[in-house]
Description:
Chain A is mainly α. Chain A has helices spanning 6-33, 39-67, 86-111, 117-140, and strands spanning 34-35, 84-85.
Amino acid sequence: MSEYSREVALSRLNELLAEELEASIRYLHLGTLVQGIDRLVIQKVLQENHEETVEHAQQVSEKILQVGGTPQPKINLELTGEKCTGIEALQTALLFEQAALDAYKEFLEVVEGSGDVVLEEFARQQVALESEHVSELRMLLGENTVGSE
Amino acid sequence: MDWREFDQNPVSHSAAHHLTAIQQLLEDQGYARVSDVARKLGITRGSVSVSLKGLRQRGLVVEDQHKHLGLSDEGQRIARGIHTKRVLFQAFLEKSLGLPADLAEMDACKIEHLVSDLTAEALAIYIDRREDASDSSSDREQQVNALEDSIREGRVEAFPGKEIETISERLQSSSEEQSKDKDDE
């Protein structure tokens, strides 16, 4: 387990907030770039995922406030304007969803056994949710998936 | 000259930072993961993952089964070249033009991935001559003359060549010593 302190928890929560906010913008942006016969279906998936990441961002912000901090995400987004197919959009989404899952797993390692039951429970719940997201995207892409790895 | 060609530069500013960050992490800690690159660059893992996709497709970055990142031979060459250019331009801006270290570092960072290999070699020779005018050993003179000949002919064999990297390493350690002395004061 990594060493736990309130500052470390806040710093990690702000990193998670940045991941979620950037992901929500990426989903919106991908939705505008997707082309092809499956465009409408993929746009619906991207829109749903966008809404979920906004919800996650709100939850992370709440946790930051509960720990006594202020939400201060460092956003530095670089978006390309290249059109993509539905598959390419989902492949890109899988990259940042997997990154978010890894970030939550690392956060769980930080808070696990720290005595902060609320944060620990939150981290577990988010790992489960993000694992589902990743699995869902893998299934849509026709990739084999076994749990959250 | 067509200024729009700059947008076609093979290595974007972001790509340059990702490649040099991986190179530095490998040198410093022996491994580089997406999380390490993200912390080093002060960006999210999501951004790093998306950026690395393009670099992987271009064969510059490789990833093993444990999600440890590495650079291909070409990736290493580009990363070393960018790092060398950054050191050279920083030294030139700071020592020859007398700019403050912070500004020199920032402006060198803006230039490093855009400037040609030929210009960087010419700059290395200029700095080397200016730095160490007293050293006129025949070996060194021959090396410099050979480099100058290649520049006049408008060609660079492989950037950064051994001589250029030696100059860059010397400049970097001199700069590090200077900032250490300042900290001690």
